[in-house]
Specification:
100 residues, flat
Amino acid sequence: MVMIIVMIVNWQIFISTFLMIFLAELGDKTQLAIFAFASKEKSSLSVFLGASFALVLTSLTAVLLGGVLGKVMPERVMKVAAGLIFIGFGLWSIMEAVKG
């Protein structure tokens, strides 16, 4: 089974994806939330497993949607949409911070 995965995986894409996501996630809001949970909960393993499962599930969702949308929507449109979503989340975060 492991040998099949080793032969199927495009290692250049795997490594570049890993590095991009790893570096992008350092110090982001999700990591800080996990840090906060781990600092107040007694079971660090439970926090780790919950956070890991959540990140795997969101990554799976993104890969599946990206695969489908990539077949019907130009890459440029997806990049613009992703940028607008990021801007929207940023504005929402700023409004929440100003309110409270």
